[in-house]
Design brief:
Strand order of the largest sheet: 1-3-2-4-5-6-9
Largest sheet: 7 strands, mixed
Distance between the termini: 109 Å
Helix content: 40-55%
Number of helices: 12
């Protein structure tokens, strides 16, 4: 695999790989690709015909003016990652790892507040959703750095991601179809129990759908659905149909890509079906994101400062309440003398620095007066 300049770049099977960064210009936006079930950070986005890996070989020159850095994320996306139910939320684990890695990658590059645009295929969209839900929920001071992904996210492009999950049976069917397309036949034949699990243990997937609705308006969203059916054992089916992949939501963009579910994310050239739509969305978001995300961070930093000030005030108030009152005890030496000048007088505390000069003058005058009286 090579980037737009023809240089070979190895892609890590797991974790983040930076496949392009503008040089010597400092990047102004991060574009992050996340694959789906049984996917791969390289193969999911690579044309089977031309072997073009479009995130690195086609996209960067188009985003030259937007100064975008391009990353791909890989994770263990076997079928059990999406079928273990609420008690073993592996999607949540993937989401936590994604957030932690992306935060670390950006922090060491002094880019925690850089805008983010996501491109997710199929069930990879569920991982992105869950990651943003997790990041949005963080409120602790010690983990607030993990919230930076939520604050910095500007837009998300979902390619064939199932969004409507209220119908349990329908969820199971869709996931089974996705497995039929994305998993090798030997896995489908040898592990039928995994496919059976799809029909029952999908509570986690439904919860993600419901939770994400609460923060959806925060982002610019672009839904893409497949325009061609997939041949499943002689039957043509839309793996994730338009109703599920591109639900009608206010102020959300929708479009069709004239390819089947597996190939809608593989652009072999700039003339490939759907390429212009997807790349135009990325480019628009990359252009618009910096100003919007800067405002997000202005608000976020102000809220953090206010919260810290309130916490400090609360701690101070608590410390004052818990401080025992001081007892006023008579000075044991209140009638002690200080030479002839203080005989029979009440002992006074030393003056402040500002009054020290005046105190000294009075002290000298008093001594001289006493000497004359004694004479």
């Amino acid at each position: 695999m090579s980037n737009s300049s023809g240089q070979s770049i190895p892609v890590n099977r797991f974790g983040l790989t930076e496949v392009y960064s503008p040089t010597p210009t400092k990047p102004e936006v991060d574009v992050v690709f996340v694959h789906g079930l049984n996917g791969d950070p390289h193969n999911t986005w690579t044309s089977e015909n031309t072997k073009i890996f479009w995130p690195a070989q086609i996209l960067p020159p188009i985003l030259e003016d937007e100064k975008a850095r391009v990353l791909v994320y890989g994770y263990d996306a076997d079928v059990t990652s999406f079928t273990d139910g609420a008690s073993r939320d592996k999607i949540h684990n993937h989401a936590e790892h994604l957030i932690a890695e992306l935060v670390a990658n950006r922090r060491i590059r002094k880019a925690s507040e850089r805008p983010i645009i996501w491109i997710a295929h199929s069930l990879g969209g569920l991982v992105v959703k869950r990651a943003l839900i997790y990041s949005a929920e963080i409120r602790g001071i010690k983990t607030e750095h993990l919230r930076s992904i939520f604050v910095s996210t500007y837009g998300i492009l979902f390619l064939g991601t199932p969004h409507h999950g209220s119908d349990v049976a329908q969820w199971g069917n869709r996931l089974e179809w996705i497995c039929s397309v994305m998993l090798p036949k030997k896995v489908m034949d040898s592990q039928p129990q995994l496919i059976d699990a799809l029909k029952t243990n999908n509570e986690t997937l439904q919860n993600i759908d419901r939770q994400f609705i609460q923060i959806l308006n925060r982002f610019h969203i672009y839904f893409f659905h497949e325009g061609k059916p997939t041949n499943l054992k002689g039957t043509l089916k839309f793996i994730v149909d338009e109703t599920s992949a591109s639900p009608t939501v206010q102020d959300v963009e929708r479009a069709v890509i004239q390819a089947d579910h597996s190939h809608m994310c593989k652009f072999e050239n700039q003339s490939a079906p759907g390429f212009d739509l997807v790349v135009d969305g990325i480019q628009r978001y990359a252009e618009e994101a910096p100003a919007r995300i800067k405002r997000n961070w202005d608000v976020e930093n102000q809220e953090r400062t206010t919260a810290k000030q309130a916490e400090a005030a609360e701690l101070y108030s608590a410390s004052v309440k818990n401080t025992p009152p001081q007892k006023n005890t008579p000075q044991s030496d209140s009638n002690s003398t200080l030479g002839n000048s203080s005989l029979g007088r009440e002992r006074r505390a030393l003056p402040s620095a500002e009054g020290q000069v005046e105190f000294d003058k009075q002290y000298i005058v008093e001594d001289v007066t006493n000497e004359k009286e004694m004479a």
